[in-house]
Amino acid sequence: MTKVDAQDLRTNETDDRGRIYLGTEYANKRVTVAVVEVESDHPDEDELAVAYREASEGAEELADEWDGASDEAWSGLDK
Known about the structure:
The chain is mostly helical. It has one domain (about 5-75). The chain has 1 helix and no strands. The chain has one helix spanning about 45-75. It is rod-shaped, with a radius of gyration of 27 Å.
């Protein structure tokens, strides 16, 4: 059995079915793979909720500022 040196460990992306291409050097060999860590490329629900809340608050502040600027602009036209 071939032992793998820690220096040879690689991080690979999976395809849409969760498969990883190891390379031709492993062709016709039995390979045992250990998954050490899995990272999602999608934000979790808590991160999305925080981002949505921050965007919503920012939009409210912007709308308030726009109301003031808009009223000021319209009153300037009435003169």
